[in-house]
Design a protein that fits this description.
The chain has about 160 residues and is of the alpha+beta class. The protein has six helices and five strands, in the order H-H-E-H-E-E-H-H-E-E-H. The chain has one domain (about 25-155). Strands 1-2-3-5-4 form a five-stranded antiparallel beta sheet, sandwiched between helices.
Length: about 160
């Protein structure tokens, strides 16, 4: 009996140690990442979303899914520039956020095809990305550079 208890306790300790070794994702301040992007890439004239309610209004992201976020977008009808960085509460929430951002991006592409054909190629080159529970959307002619900056900040 003592032997069984020792084996069970050892197994529990091993699981605990291995779980701790897995580590957690690097803590990242998304607002600081956004400030860095703004300073490096000269994004100006964009509206900053201040609350999760704003995030929900523009992107229909469930507010309960959001741990933290930073988002800026153009409010000019002729300009398709936006950077949305969202840390979700868990993997399921991240999947939900990704789906909503992909739906939004598809809507932007549809609008551009109808009203601003000059922006179609730029929007088609953009996509929603995910790193763990952080999901992000960059719609910009500087997509590759900004996406690279986000990826570097998340490492």
């Amino acid at each position: 009996m003592k032997r069984v208890i020792c084996i069970v306790l050892a197994a529990i300790l091993i699981v605990g140690v291995l779980s701790a070794c897995g580590g957690s994702a690097k803590a990242v301040d998304l607002k600081a990442v956004m400030n860095d992007i703004n300073s490096k890439y000269g994004l100006t004239g964009l509206k900053t979303l201040e609350s999760v309610d704003d995030l929900n209004r523009y992107y229909t992201i469930n507010t309960a899914d959001v741990k933290q976020f930073a988002a800026e977008l153009s409010t000019a009808a002729s300009q398709y520039t936006e950077v949305v960085l969202v840390e979700a509460n868990d993997q399921t929430a991240a999947d939900n956020v990704k789906k909503q951002l992909e739906t939004h991006l598809a809507g932007q592409l549809s609008n551009a095809k109808s009203y601003d054909a000059g922006q179609v190629a730029m929007i088609e080159s953009c996509s929603v990305k995910q790193a763990g529970n952080i999901v992000y959307l960059v719609v910009s002619d500087k997509f590759s550079d900004i996406t690279g900056a986000v990826e570097a900040a998340l490492k």
